[in-house]
């Protein structure tokens, strides 16, 4: 029995948006074509390809991994199982970074993953000198591809946090250091639920109390920040107060947290005194 594009849209067991995205991907068409070609019958090969994608989604695999792409900050980003899927919450960190980056300023994105933060900043502020680092060579390959695809000028380094920056000249210090590090505590039930089951565990959890990566970033940032430079970090929904206390203990000023669109304190940061 043959199926039309329209019938597959009406009869799917998936969420309508998921179904539409997978149907576009399976057929290599855009959303408009699904409407204008709604009565077109699928070939056997197309039907099998779509059915395989639907089964992957029913098995829980994230849509972004199935189609290999996710939009972030208005830009298309390639994603794979080597990197976290960029999420809208992290756009707040990009906005705060852009606001605090002076003309021709220098920005460091630590643990860049897909490159979402670094590429978004570099694409928006082409005057900025943006550096991104990650310990994973596979993640850096994805980030480099995203920088090229979005015409963003970013320097990439393979580094375990500040390792590759040791001995850098004072002139190479940054105006802003931004990071979305692993901050889910070991054993948190969220790691075995939803999309997180498929994402790289090392990019999600620090295998400790959820604050160890944030402590490392705060402890090592000052030699790499210019006077009055900003350190900005994304963190968990219940970690804002703890991160603010860590920043204050390290001597940062203007320490504060910012809420995401859901009203959750999602990013905390502070300024290095002049």
Automatic annotation (TrEMBL):
Residues 12-68 form the Release factor glutamine methyltransferase N-terminal domain. Keywords: Methyltransferase, S-adenosyl-L-methionine, Transferase. Pfam families: MTS (PF05175), PrmC_N (PF17827). Its EC number is 2.1.1.297. It catalyses: L-glutaminyl-[peptide chain release factor] + S-adenosyl-L-methionine = N(5)-methyl-L-glutaminyl-[peptide chain release factor] + S-adenosyl-L-homocysteine + H(+). Residues 90-188 form the Methyltransferase small domain. It is an enzyme of class 2 (transferase). One of its GO terms (molecular function) is peptide chain release factor N(5)-glutamine methyltransferase activity. The keyword Glycoprotein does not apply. One of its GO terms (biological process) is methylation. InterPro entries: DNA_methylase_N6_adenine_CS, HemK-like, N5-glutamine_MTase, PrmC_N, RF_methyltr_PrmC, SAM-dependent_MTases_sf, Small_mtfrase_dom. PROSITE patterns: N6_MTASE (PS00092). Substrate binds at residues 180-183. The keyword Methyltransferase applies. S-adenosyl-L-methionine binds at residues 111-115, 134, 161, 180. HAMAP family: RF_methyltr_PrmC (MF_02126). Belongs to the protein N5-glutamine methyltransferase family. PrmC subfamily. Methylates the class 1 translation termination release factors RF1/PrfA and RF2/PrfB on the glutamine residue of the universally conserved GGQ motif. This is Release factor glutamine methyltransferase. It comes from Duganella dendranthematis. The gene is prmC.
């Amino acid at each position: 029995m043959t199926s039309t594009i329209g019938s597959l849209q009406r009869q799917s067991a998936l969420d309508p948006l998921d179904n539409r995205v997978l149907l576009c991907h399976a057929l290599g068409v855009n959303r408009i074509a699904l409407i204008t070609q709604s009565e077109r019958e699928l070939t056997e090969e197309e039907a099998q390809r779509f059915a395989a994608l639907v089964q992957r989604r029913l098995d829980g695999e994230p849509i972004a991994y199935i189609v290999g792409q996710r939009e972030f900050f208005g830009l298309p980003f390639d994603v794979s199982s080597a990197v976290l899927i960029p999420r809208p919450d992290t756009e707040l960190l990009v906005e705060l970074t852009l606001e605090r980056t002076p003309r021709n300023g220098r920005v460091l994105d630590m643990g860049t993953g897909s490159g979402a933060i670094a590429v978004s900043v570099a694409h928006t502020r082409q005057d900025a000198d943006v550096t991104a680092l990650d310990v994973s060579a596979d993640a850096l390959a994805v980030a480099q591809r995203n920088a090229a695809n979005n015409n963003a000028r970013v320097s990439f380094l393979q580094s375990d946090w500040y390792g590759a920056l040791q001995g850098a000249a004072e002139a190479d210090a940054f105006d802003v250091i931004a990071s979305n590090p692993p901050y889910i505590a070991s054993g948190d039930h969220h790691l075995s639920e939803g999309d997180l089951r498929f994402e790289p565990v090392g990019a999600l959890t620090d295998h400790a109390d959820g604050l160890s990566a944030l402590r490392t970033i705060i402890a090592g940032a000052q030699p790499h920040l210019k006077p009055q430079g900003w350190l900005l970090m994304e963190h968990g929904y219940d970690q804002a107060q703890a991160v603010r206390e860590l920043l204050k203990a390290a001597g940062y000023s203007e320490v504060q947290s910012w809420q995401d669109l859901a009203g959750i304190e999602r990013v905390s940061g502070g300024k290095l005194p002049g």
